[in-house]
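Example for tutorial group B:
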């Protein structure tokens, strides 16, 4: 449970860091290598992992203070928090409250940071004089924005809704999007934007470079 939570929370933090990275690249591309140094990148990554460690530990400890005295079969394809809360035979109000409070720091805060970053990105793109430059800038951000929407939207619909209003079937369907669907899309959306990957794919399919 802790491992699953930690990787999910870290992805949310990393997506917000990537939004800031794109903002720096578009706002001042000539100074990008000076602003986003390896030291800054390491600190951002370490901060993401530290935040995920704290949030995952609190959520895991809170959940396993509950009593599980009924069926021990989880109606899910993984050990997810809402599925475990449905199994508990004690009052889960406090555990749900802790989970929703943590969602503010692990979901709403990263999403807010992403929105602010993209608001500044839009302002910076509008200031670009050439139409080609604006298209290239928006193209750089489109893949990341789609991943953020799919991942954060589905996670919020599952974790920030009262458990009394959700069903195990709904939870399983929603989980598929951020557990399986989004990770599958990641290499497709990011890698296929790389020129070398595109050229290798064309060679594999036997198409000329201009096709």
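The residue assignment follows.
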């Amino acid at each position: 449970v802790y491992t699953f939570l930690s990787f999910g929370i870290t992805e949310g933090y990393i997506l917000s860091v990537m939004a800031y990275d794109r903002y720096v690249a578009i706002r001042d591309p000539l100074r990008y290598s000076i602003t986003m140094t390896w030291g800054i990148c390491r600190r951002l990554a370490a901060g993401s992992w530290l935040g995920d460690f704290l949030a995952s530990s609190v959520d895991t400890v809170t959940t396993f203070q509950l009593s599980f005295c009924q069926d021990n079969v989880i109606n899910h394809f993984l050990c997810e928090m809402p599925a475990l809360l449905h199994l508990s035979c004690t009052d889960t109000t406090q555990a749900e409250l802790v989970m929703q409070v943590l969602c503010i720091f692990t979901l709403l805060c990263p999403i807010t940071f992403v929105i602010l970053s993209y608001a500044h990105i839009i302002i910076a793109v509008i200031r670009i004089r050439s139409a080609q430059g604006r298209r290239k800038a928006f193209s750089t951000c489109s893949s990341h924005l789609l991943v953020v929407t799919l991942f954060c939207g589905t996670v919020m619909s599952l974790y920030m809704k009262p458990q009394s209003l959700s069903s195990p079937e709904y939870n399983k369907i929603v989980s598929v999007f951020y557990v399986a669907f989004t990770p599958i899309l990641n290499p497709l959306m990011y890698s296929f934007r790389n020129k070398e990957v595109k050229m290798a794919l064309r060679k594999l399919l036997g198409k000329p470079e201009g096709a």
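The domain at 2-205 is CATH 1.20.1070.10 (Rhopdopsin 7-helix transmembrane proteins). Compare this with the pattern of hydrophobic and polar residues in the output above.
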